[in-house]
Structures are given as C-alpha cells and as structure tokens.
Amino acid sequence: LTALTVADCGERALIARITQRLPVPAWVLVGPGDDAAVLEPVRGALEVLTTDVQVDGVHVDRRFVPPEAVGHRALAVNLSDLAAMGARPRAALLSLALPPSLGLEELDRILDGLLGLAASSGTAIVGGNITSTEGPLAIDVTVTGSVHRRRILRRSGARPGDEVFVTGTLGDAAAGLHRLRSAFERGEDLLAARTCAARYLHPEPRLRAGVQLGAHRAASSCMDLSDGLADGIRQLAQASDLGMTLDAAAVPVSAETREWLAQHGFDPLQVALAGGDDFELIFTVRPAHAGRLRGVRRLVGNLPITRIGVMTRSRALIMRDGRNERELPAGYEHFKS
Amino acid sequence: LTALTVADCGERALIARITQRLPVPAWVLVGPGDDAAVLEPVRGALEVLTTDVQVDGVHVDRRFVPPEAVGHRALAVNLSDLAAMGARPRAALLSLALPPSLGLEELDRILDGLLGLAASSGTAIVGGNITSTEGPLAIDVTVTGSVHRRRILRRSGARPGDEVFVTGTLGDAAAGLHRLRSAFERGEDLLAARTCAARYLHPEPRLRAGVQLGAHRAASSCMDLSDGLADGIRQLAQASDLGMTLDAAAVPVSAETREWLAQHGFDPLQVALAGGDDFELIFTVRPAHAGRLRGVRRLVGNLPITRIGVMTRSRALIMRDGRNERELPAGYEHFKS
C-alpha cells in the first residue's frame, strides 16, 4: 500500500483539503475560493505588507526538519517582519510549490504547523495558490498587518547616542540547526536533537514586543534578526547612516547554548554574530526614552531585553571586548559567491 | 567575455538593482527596504488580496516566451483576479526564485515587462524577496486592491435566468501559445510567431470592465477565465449552485484566430472551451439589469461584451449547438494525473 501523494490529487481537491481547515473570521468578507479575498480594513490603521519564502534545501532542509516546523517557519519569518514594524498580524496568503511526490500526510503536517501559528497569532489565511514543481518544495507566504501611524517602527530613525537593544537570546537557533544537521549527517537519532533545536524549528515572532515598542513609542529604529546579529547591526546602522559600537560581553547567549557551544569548540559570540534564524528584534532607544522602555519591559513577560551597544556618529561598526576594539565581522548573505 | 548572472551579484545588490527602478507614490509611507511596506488605506474601501505564481516550465516556457512577457504575465494574472472582484489595483509584492545562471540582462527584461504593466495599471511595487533556487525560475506575485463594499463582484450570486456574458474574444491566447510552441519545436523564427501570440504573451487584465461592472452593480456574479471557458462556466455555476446552458454559436472567437485554427485543423469552439490564458471576464447579469450593462458597455471602449448563455436551476452544464444539446466538455486542471 503506497501512501497518497499530491500527484494523486487534483489541484481543486488539494485546495479544498486546505481551505476546509481554515477558520474565516467575520472581518473576512470574501475568503478562500473566490478570485481574491476581501477584508474589512482596521479603522484608523495603516496597512502593512510583507512576503518571504522558505525553500527546501535553501532556507530549510526537510531531511531533518519535521513538516510541522517547515510550516511554522514559513509563517513565522513573515510575522517576525510584522513584529519589526510594530504591526499586528491580520491575514496571510499561501503560495505553495509542491513536488508531485510530496505525501498528503506530510502536506497535512506542514499545514498543522502553519495553521497552529496562524491561530495563536490571530492571522487569518484568506487565500493562496498551489502549483506543481519539479524543483524543491517552496512555501511563499505574504502577510498583512495593521499599525497606527505614530506607532510604526522603521529601520531608520536612530540618532548618535541612542542605545541598542535586542530581545531574547541569540545563537540558540544556529546552535540548534548545527545539532540537527550533525545528528542527521551521522545518522543519529533526530528526536533528541529536535528537542534541543526548538528555537530553530519553532521560532516565536516577537509580535508583542514589537507592538509594545510601537505603542510606547520607545524605539527610534527597529528590525528583526534573520541573518545574525552582525548583519542586523550593519543594516540598522546603515539605514540611519550611523555606526555602532557593540559591547561583546553584553550579547545575550543562553547558558545552555553557551555551554553546549563551548563544549563543542565554538565561540558563542561568533555564533550569535553570524548565526541566523533567531528572529529576535534589534532596536534603538533614545537615552531620554528609557522610561518608555521600562513600560515595554513590564508588558513582555519573561522576554529579556538586553542593551548591547550604542549608535555612533562615525559610521564604523566596532566590537568592543574588554579593552580591545575591532571591526565587526560580516554576516550571512544569500547568493554570495 | 561572459554575460553577468545573478550568481555574480549579492542578494543585496540584486534587491538594490530592482528597488532603484521602483517609483514610490505618496500613499506608500514605507516602501521597499524596510522589514515590511506600510500603506495609507483607501478611505471607505475594503482591502482585496490575491496571489499567483508563474513557474518556468509549468505556467510559462522561457525557451520561447521572451523575458518581458514572463514579467508581464506574472503581474497580469494577479491583476486579472482583481478585475474579477471589481477592484482597483494598489500594491504588489514580488517573490523571485532565481536560478543562479539567470543572466542579469534577462532579469532586467523580466522587470521591464512587469514594471511596464505596474505603471500602466497604477500598481506600486512595495516589497518582496529574492532567493536562489536549483529549480526553475518562479515569480510569485501578491497584489492588493481596493473595492467599495457594494461593488464587490463575487463568483456566487447568480440566479436562474441570469444571462451569461464574456468580455473580449476567446481562444486567441491558446492559439498563440500553440503557434509559439510549434515554431520553437520546428526551429522556426520565433519573432513572427510572437507577433501572432500577443494575446498569450501580453494578456490585458480587464480592470476597467471589472471596475465598471462593480460600479454599475451590473453583474450578479463574475470571475476571470484563466483555464478556459469550460472551466470558468463550471466554476461560476458551481459557486451559485446552478447550471448553465451555453450557446455554442455565440462563443466569441476573433476572425483571425478562427481562420488560423480552421486552416490548421482545430475546432475554434474546442480551443475556446479548453484553451487557457485568455484572462477575459465571465459574468452573469439579471435580465432586469440589462440597462446597467448598457452603461458598462459605454465605458469599456472597444472591448466586446458577448452574451453566451443563461443560468439554469438544473445543475447540468449544457452546450447547445443549433438543435443539438450535449454535456459541456471538461477544462484544464493542474496536477491532473
């Protein structure tokens, strides 16, 4: 008995299989199944739009990443961009490129992960499309969100002297990915590695932190960290035409990740700087707005918010480690040759 | 001297190459380059969202479709969905999966086609992403539009006795694609075939017709024809839980296409029924609203609007040809095995 694949389904049957699982809130006037979705706008709010894709073999590796995590990540990377704008999620569209050999059960599990995060984040899936591909599985998600005009978090807007903060801890996702990949390559048990790779497999978009930073008008600039801290610093500084001095000792790495990395011969700081997939927020705060940041801290529960440096008029990106100062190393970029 | 490919560029350089070409209208408060785009809403209007993809080898074949047409089609298929809802276009996001071997010049020409249609349709490109792929080139576009509440065109809403209309002529795109593919397979000159395949290469989304049908409240249901007339009839009838009787003699096929098809042994009616890519609108009108339709006709210039049948309470899909009646043949579906 062979398990069913998407090739055994018609396009319509696949679409029906997905749409029957989608709750349609009252503000979705026309949901999946028509030529386009129609939504009630949020009164007085601006529209926020972003799109990002997860391609098997490029952004995620299905050989060791379980289907639920593939689905979760496909939505999470987009919600993280909304968080970085201070926006609340509204709707999402899914564009699925599926290899004909993909099992229906695997597709269902991808949807489990995606729809679970959609439900917990209040994101309505309102449409999309499915296509057959001879290439790798690709999940292209577009999300819309809403934000009030004075609460937008931009990448630009920092001034010299603004302090730089990050949410959460860094490097956990990169360490988790390394453990997963190593376990896979050595033919070891993936289940054990997966429990240690939760931050990689199920990144939690910092929606509450983003919304509160916007609502308190606490941040002078903000972005999310998808390609490592060094890349984030570089882009945030560039957007405001400034430099930054990073306090290496302040970079928050969890005790568990720090210990595991040290045991395996990795420098935790380097992993935090170059390792991607953390999806934490990096943002700047004017010294005079420290009180606003305290207001945010009270509303984000256990999420750490750590000061890691200061913006400088000089455009140099400097890492200070005790008495030593050196140039910030580079981050990760797709297409690099 | 080898021509430059996208692999010679960094991701950032590619993004910069594209964003520098994008005009940013005043209602785009945050455009490309931040974590997400932020737009002013249209006062009093609803938000319309849709997404569709063009994959090389599945929806389009770059061996004989020029790059400008690849780009044009990627946006056009989405704008056609907006037209089918009665919506005006607002913004688009591009998600580009590029093979590393793609030439930069070819990428620029794809953008020429896409940005040309964006400009002529008033669509602002506000963001997107680029990823490297080992699979085929894929251009995934999401568009947003606006429509007023009482002007939405839905697929459902037809009643028995409503008359069925289509815009434009059908089968031209399928005939054009056939000519292109034949010329390619025979190693003939593609330029000559391309001039005859304009309707396939550069489909014109029926935005004005859709907006006017909505504004006049002339249509009781509407959708666009992407997969052939038979498929459109089937879906439109199903959405209203009705049947339809099609008058075969009324199906509008252009004189040029009819002649070419007949000369080459094809039945023009079959090509109109099964051939996709026309991107005309099919819609229904209550008999009492014939005056509203006349109002629409006056505002859509030379675009023909042809009555092709009537909705029926019986769910059967019937094709009447003179005195003969038979069941409507099937259309095209992706993933069919």
Structure, explained:
The structure is a homodimer of 337-residue chains. The first copy, chain A, is 35% helix and 24% strand. The first copy, chain A, has eleven helices and 13 strands. Chain A has helices spanning 11-19, 67-85, 104-121, 172-185, 190-196, 198-201, 207-215, 229-239, 255-263, 268-274, 290-299; strands at residues 28-30, 37-39, 46-55, 88-98, 124-132, 138-147, 163-167, 221-224, 243-247, 281-285, 305-312, 317-321, 324-327. In chain A, the strands form three sheets. A seven-stranded mixed sheet of chain A has the order 8-10-7-11-9-12-13, sandwiched between helices. In chain A, strands 3-6-4-5 form a four-stranded mixed sheet. A two-stranded antiparallel ribbon of chain A has the order 1-2. In chain A, helix 4 (172-185) packs antiparallel against helix 5 (190-196). At the A-B interface, helix 1, strand 2, strand 3, helix 2 and strand 4 of A face helix 1, strand 2, strand 3, helix 2 and strand 4 of B.
